Please model this.
Amino acid sequence: MGSPTVVVVGAGQAGSDTAAALRSQGFAGRIVLVGDEDALPYRKPLLSKEYLVGDPEGEDTALRPASFYAGQGIELRTGDPAVRIDREGRRLVLASGEELGYDHLVLATGARPRRLSVPGAELDGVLALRTLADARTLRTALAGTGDLLVVGGGFIGLEVAAAARASGVRVTVVETRDRLMGRSVSAPTARYLAEQHTAHGVRLLLSEELTALHGEEGRVRVAELGRGERIRADLVVAGVGVLPNTALAADAGLEVGDGILVDPRLRTADPRIHAIGDCARFPSRHAPRHLRLESVQNAADQARSVAAAIHAPADPPPYDAVPWFWTRQYGARLQIAGITDGHDRTVTVGDPAGGRFSVFCFRDGLLLGTESVNRPADHMITRRLLATGDRSLTPEAVAAPGFDLKHRQPQPA
Model:
């Protein structure tokens, strides 16, 4: 029996890290990394931050140089999308017609932006941000824009708004919910973010919706809102979520549902196929439901977990990493440890007015997670508490005068 072959579909963070982790963990077989974009795997978090504002630190977006893949014996197929999985024959078919046999297949197909569905969404100047090509187009467009409309007050929308303000662009954010990042953070954190954006000149329109876009000579000029207001918009960025890329898996008969469904070890119903990263929906002890997480941390952790399971498949442990997320806007670094939605009580510690605080989120008296602004120690300690299963931290303890999380020592479950 020859050396096994692993084919990884998706050359983003999850896919690239899987290939790298296989080699670093000692896998000696053939590794093929397939990507539909004609670019080296790159770091997406830079695209809505440093890269967008032309910061020199954001110009080098590559995760690893081309020499890394060649040096590690990782065959990189970029600009050649996968179009079909032949599960019975254990072969992956690429758009070029090339067929790749595999012993293990890893689906790291990522997600794509959800598009606006209002009249006028097809006009020039209506953009989304997901890929390096998107970021290049948006950066160029921002340089000649007076008025930007951001649709959606989530991670991407707010990071774009902050970057645009740094470039002097007038920015309006329209959000259908009554607060920013309503799916991701608590009310105190959302309030802080809203205050930051307002202080930096962003016009926030909450509980509002975009109903139509109007243009001149094919290019967007005016946005029409639900309450009847019409505002100027030379450029529109849609930050209204993403859709997981599941078509390849669904066509192969694998179960999908807002993501490719996998077990606690990130395996699909086909034992030779794993799914990881933004496209995978998995069970987690850190949430009451299956999760599909769009984060670099999740992509990297799942990549290492799957690489270990493929390399030493005897009894792989379930994937159990604590979810965490981050964003940076106007110099404020927000770090979220755990899944905090569904909380029924929050306790804020620190100084929101001074831009250094943490919001502890509880449900039924148990800690779900912490949202920390410029308090990295709280974030790290919370991650350790959640990882060990220490549930002894109570809302009353956090609310007590003089509380300091640094004095907490995580206890084993």
